[in-house]
Amino acid sequence: MTNPANTVLYTGVTSDLKKRVYEHKNKLADGFTKKYNVVKLVYYEVYENITDAIMREKQIKGGSRRKKIELINKFNPQWKDLYDDIL
Fold first, then answer.
1. Which pTM was predicted?
2. Rg of the chain, C-alpha, whole Å
3. How confident is the model at residue 11 (pLDDT cuts 50, 70, 90)?
4. Largest CB tally within 10 Å, which of 12, 58, 67, 87?
């Protein structure tokens, strides 16, 4: 996720993506996303197994900012908010 200016990047894991993004958009979750106005879903991956999802989250978080931007650019070159497109 990112802020409207696409300058802040946030990576997280959840079992209910639509609900979690809604919470971030509506400032229902205190912390980093609320403080930095992280309200735009620009990238996501779906996993059947939570262990795999957590491992991937750690891999992404451990990567460089450049790698995260490349990942987003390949998946969503316009950095469009994907909230309405998720299942």
1. 0.93
2. 12
3. very high
4. 12
